[in-house]
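Fold description:
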Amino acid sequence: MIGGYERSNERLDQGEAPFCNFCGKEEDEVGRLLAGADAYICDDCVALASEVIEEGK
């Protein structure tokens, strides 16, 4: 599991839509979904992560 969800590849093999491994939103619920080797992240989670990183500087 990644981020509390089944691996994306396993869900996709079962015919399900790609989803964000951080928040669980599916592809049609987000503006953009970025693919990694074994996971996806949506634009909302990227923006949140960027804010957290900037606050830590």
Remarks:
- The chain has two helices and two strands.
